[in-house]
Structures are given as C-alpha cells and as structure tokens.
Amino acid sequence: MKETPYRIAVNVEWTSKCNARCAMCPRSMIAQPRIMELATFRQTLSRLSPDLAFRVIIAGYGEPTTHPRFDDFVEALRGHPLRFDMATNGSRLDEERLMRMDGLFTGLMISFSSTDPEVYRSVHANLDQAQVMENILLAHRTLKATRLVINLSPTAECLATLPGTVAWFRRHGIDSLHMSPTYYDRAGAIRTDGVPSERDLRAKIRAYGFASQEMAFIPGVGDIIGQWRHNRFKCIPRNTSMLIDAGGNYTYCFNDIRHSHPIGHVSDMSLGEAIALRQAEGPDAAICSQCNLRRRYRPRELARVALSYANGRLKEIRGKSSTRGA
Ligand SMILES: C[S@@+](CC[C@H](N)C(=O)[O-])C[C@H]1O[C@@H](n2cnc3c(N)ncnc32)[C@H](O)[C@@H]1O
Ligand code: SF4
User: Ligand 2 centroid vs 183 CA: distance in angstroms?
Assistant: First the structure.
C-alpha cells in the first residue's frame, strides 16, 4: 500500500522576500523573510514524488524571480518527474529567463490586477505596470511548451475595472484567465471588510468564463475522498496542499502566513511522514479560529465545487475528442 493513499499539491517557497507590496498580501507578518539555500531545494526535490504530489507550485509568499540564484533553481528541476508551475508577479522576466523556463514548467502564472494604472498601483504597489504588461506579452510570444496563465486579483477595485482588463488580454490572444473565488484573510492576518464576497467572485468567474483557481488543487475525486477520510481535521484548503517554506520546513497550513506552525524539516523527514503527522493534528486554535476559510466548505459549497469540477472535466474530455477528430 502507498505511504499516503492520496495526492496533494506542494507549494515551495524559494524566498519569502518580495519586490512588491501587494494590498492583499500581509507579508509583513513574516518575521524574518528568507531565501532558500540551493542544498535545501535539492533536498526538497528529493522528497517529492508523483505518488504523493500531483503538482508542485513554486510560489509561497515571496517572489521567486527575485531569488539571487534563480537560474540554478530553475536548472535543478531538469529531469524531475513531477509537474512544476510557478506563480510570479511578472516584474522580473526577460527573454533569457523565459526561454530557460520554457518546457520545464507546465504553467507560468502571472498575477495581475488591472490595466487601469491607478488601480494597478494601489493593488500591486511597488511594481512598474508598463514593465509587467510588456513582460506578459513577451511571455506570450516566447513560451512554446509552457502555458501562460493570468491570475486576476480578486479585489473590489479590480472587479470594477475588469471589462477593460479582460479586453486587453483577449485582444492580445491571452485566454487563460484565472481568478480565486475567495479573498483569503490568511488566518486573520488581513482585514476583509469591503472585499468581494465569494458569491460576487463566483458570479464574475462565471460571467467572464474564467477558470476558478480552486480547481487547480483538485487532483482527482479519489484523492479528495482520501484526504477527507484520513485527516482528523476536515479542512479542505489545508489538506489539499503542503507549503514547504523558504527555510525548508513542512508547514501546517499555507494560510498561516506567519509560518507559526512548522511540522518538520525536509532534511529530517519525508513528505509522507510530514503528511502523516499533519493528518493526526486537529485545528490550530491560534490560527484556525481567525481564518475565513474555516467553515467555507460545507455540504452546499462542496456540491457546487464538485459540479464545477465535473463540468471542467467534461469540457476537457470534449476538447480532447474534438482535437482527435480534427
Ligand atoms: C501569494 S502570491 C505569491 C507569488 C508571487 N509573488 C505572485 O505575486 O504571484 C500567489 C497568488 O496569490 C494571490 N493572492 C495574494 N493574496 C491573496 C488574497 N488575500 N486572496 C486571494 N488571493 C491572493 C496573488 O494574486 C497571486 O496570484
Ligand atoms: S481553518 Fe486553519 S487549517 Fe483551515 S485553511 Fe484556515 S488556517 Fe488553514
């Protein structure tokens, strides 16, 4: 029998430092932002296998493209059997980097708020909007084997300027637009009064034909059932993924932005052992009591997500069979 009878997404934080100050990201809660060592990353890679993880997202809470050994980290992925994706704010991409990444990553997800300069400045503070938009178009032209995905920020200002933003992407042939149906409060670290409700976000996702970001964490129905059965605490957002932070620690929950509850270190423990330890843990009183996801996935919500997952799979299957017939 497998060590863990289901798979999860793994999120690896190359650095918890960032060149932006995004309005929706309370990174100031990270007491000592740090940079992962290459040896720690190699150790992390040796812990990741397809029977435990269905995808690895390079992101965490910092900006991976600011890592001083970015190229070495990208090269370290070569030959690894897992699927890798990266989330970036798009500010530090150039042709050489994009060519190096092409094919090594399945998806490059660039976070973007709005084509309105004022809104962009207020959400993605510290970044140069014109440069990011130029880099997005460069990525669209350069990437041949890696899929470019745009992660649209779920803030109220962004929703207000969505028509212009979406029109710009579609005019340039960029159709893979994703949005999170949730504005995360990161276990109480950020205020959420005035932010769009889940209902509003889901309505926008439907109206514009976006992909819902939560689907990216569902490997298959069997895995979700396995996660549910084996975890004492039935928190779906926690149980679907494991953040390995820039220090090389397995963590209790991605949404614990303070990184206050490490489970163990990649140099001492396999991913399977970390998952098993976490499975046995209940809610963390200090973080879970403040989290806006705690009671999110009740039966009605689960049914909605299951339906939307089934629709997505159906579209995929239909897409494949029509390509085959062409
Ligand atoms: C945490 S960032 C880190 C990676 C990278 N620096 C970036 O900007 O993409 C990853 C993604 O989370 C999204 N995000 C950040 N804070 C959020 C929040 N409070 N609620 C929902 N999504 C959020 C960002 O828009 C981005 O797409
Ligand atoms: S309730 Fe706790 S475990 Fe679940 S997402 Fe929130 S912080 Fe994480």
Answer: 14
Compute, in angstroms, the gap from residue 31 CA to the centroid of ligand 1.
19
Nearest CA to ligand 1 atom 24: 111
Rounded CA separation 214/112 (Å): 17
Q: Which residues, judged by CB distance below 6 Å to any ligand atom, belong to the binding site of ligand 2?
A: 187, 235, 237-238, 253, 255-256, 283, 287-288, 291, 293-294
**Short-list 7, 76, 31, CA closest to 246:** 31
- Helix (DSSP H) and strand (DSSP E) numbers for the chain: 13, 12
DSSP string, 111-159: EE--SSHHHHHHHEETS-HHHHHHHHHHHHHH-SSSEEEEEE---HHHH
Q: Would you say residue 58 has pLDDT above 70?
A: yes
Q: Which ligand is nearest to the CA of 23?
A: 1
| pTM of this structure | 0.92
Residue 31: helix, strand or coil by DSSP? coil
E-assigned strand segments in the chain: 8-12, 21-22, 53-58, 84-88, 107-112, 124-125, 147-152, 177-179, 211-212, 241-244, 249-251, 262-265
Decide: helix, strand or coil at residue 73. helix
Give yes or no for a contact between 245 and 60, defined as CB atoms under 8 angstroms apart. Answer: yes
**Whole-number mean pLDDT of the chain?**
92
Using alpha carbons only, give the angle 235, 241, 242 rounded to the nearest 5 degrees.
Answer: 110
Ligand with minimal distance to 26 CA: 1
What are phi and psi for residue 134, nearest 5 degrees?
A: -65, -40
143 C-alpha vs ligand 2 centroid, how far in Å?
A: 35
What is the predicted pLDDT for the residue at 206? 95
Distances from the Cα of 117 to the Cα of 50, 94, 132, 163, angstroms: 42, 22, 12, 14
- The answer to whether 161 and 121 have CB atoms below 8 angstroms apart is no
Q: How far is CA 78 from CA 85, 102, 106, in A?
A: 13, 11, 12
Q: Output the six-digit token pair for 29.
A: 């809660």
What is the pLDDT averaged over residues 58-64?
97
Task: List helix spans (H) across 186-270.
Answer: 198-208, 221-230, 236-239
